[in-house]
Amino acid sequence: MADTIDYILETDALVREFRGFVAVSSVSLRVRRGRIHALIGPNGAGKTTCFNLLTKFLEPTSGSIRFNGVDITDERPAEVARRGMVRSFQISSVFPHLTVLENVRVALQRSLGTSFHFWRSERSLRRLEPRALALLAEVGLEEFAGVVAVELSYGRKRALELATTLALDPQLLLLDEPTQGMGHEDVDRVMQLIRRIAADRSILMVEHNMAVVAGVCDTITVLARGSVLAEGSYAQVSRNAAVLEAYMGTAEGGLVGPGGRG
Fold it and tell me: Between the CA atoms of 148, 153, 158 and 164, what dihedral angle is there, to the nearest 10 degrees?
């Protein structure tokens, strides 16, 4: 039991087939509680399919998924989210014509079960503002509370999306390519943000930017052709000959290129 408690998420021989094509093949994954864990791999490795299986947007062909020691293999996406496993997506999904504060407040309404109570008075919603402002402070957006979301830079929109995700109070946060399409300044900001929000949460992320992976992740699982190729620290996997072969077609040099989408 102690070993199970140490891991917030575990999969056992997870398989997903699409009409005979095996996209995920016998993937056994263990995400340690309180750590940042990356799932990387070259194009077509099965990373996004694996994420979709974990969050139940896809059903596994076989295998099992356990969250906090509970088998969630047959649960629906909403049930998984209520348990505390919450996912952000590659494309930012904020309300562009609401303010930054209003975006977070909407997310907090959802967590309270009042998402569709649009007729609620402004006064009744103000009780959510202290928590909303605290979340904005956590992602470094407190000074942008009154700004309309469409006016934010791309990096800050991703930070706002994280704030709305954190409003659901996740235990495990799944980040799908959080720095995709960002310039260097925004990448640095998001790396700092990931470190900050990981202080009291577990994170599993798919990421193509190897500098980000090296800079923030404790453990890295490398997928290739739907299977686990290697696992360990960045220093370990970046020197693994099989990993270099999968990424670069050669066992020479170092792991420096992007992993792309999978």
Answer: -20
